[in-house]
Write a structure and sequence with these properties.
It comes from Erythroxylum novogranatense. Belongs to the glutaredoxin family. CGFS subfamily. By secondary structure, this protein is α+β, with helices and mostly antiparallel strands. The chain contains 7 helices and 8 strands; from the N terminus they run H-H-E-E-H-E-E-E-H-E-H-E-E-H-H. The termini are far apart.
Length: 168
């Protein structure tokens, strides 16, 4: 049975244009009513689904945006995802700890813009995410926030930050 299935599979593959010609064919083709694509981009970010969708207005640099974010927001987090839907465990942990203090939390999703991700890394000289800034100071990532929470240092750092009006 397995041999029959294997032979059928190989026979189907041999009907494909690239398999018959012995060369790599780039483009798309139909087989048994299904559309297939043989185009593989050199850069995985070239497909429109993976392109950044929030470009910065001309005249404003990403460095300026990061500086403004940090300056104007008492608690700023650059993370994977957004506070209501973190897309990594470290970002989720940082958000959970910060929400414990009921402070207004501003955030940017670094997954939406690779250039922003690099600008934040350059600004903080820190390689990993999330990156948390409190009252203009770079604090660190989720491990540092958690450690500060456990020692009581985070409560002291956030004491001047007004409590969020939004109840959770």
């Amino acid at each position: 049975m397995a041999r029959l299935l294997s032979n059928t599979l190989f026979k189907s593959i041999s009907l494909l244009p690239a398999a018959r010609s012995g060369t790599i064919v780039s483009g798309s083709f139909c087989h048994n009513g299904f559309q297939f694509s043989t185009t593989v981009p050199n850069d995985p970010d070239t497909h429109e689904d993976f392109q950044p969708n929030n470009k910065v207005e001309s005249g404003t640099s990403l460095k300026d945006i990061v500086e403004q974010d940090v300056r104007e927001n008492p608690v700023m987090i650059y993370m994977k995802g957004v506070p209501d839907f973190p897309q990594c465990g470290f970002s989720a942990l940082a958000v959970r700890v910060l929400k414990h203090y009921n402070v207004p939390l501003s955030a940017r999703n670094i997954l939406e813009n690779p250039e922003l991700k690099n600008a934040v890394k350059a600004f903080s000289t820190w390689p990993t995410f999330p990156q948390i800034f409190i009252k203009g100071d770079f604090i660190g990532g989720s491990d540092i926030i958690m450690s500060m929470h456990q020692s009581g240092e985070l409560k002291e750092k956030l004491q001047d930050v007004p409590v969020s009006q939004k109840s959770e």
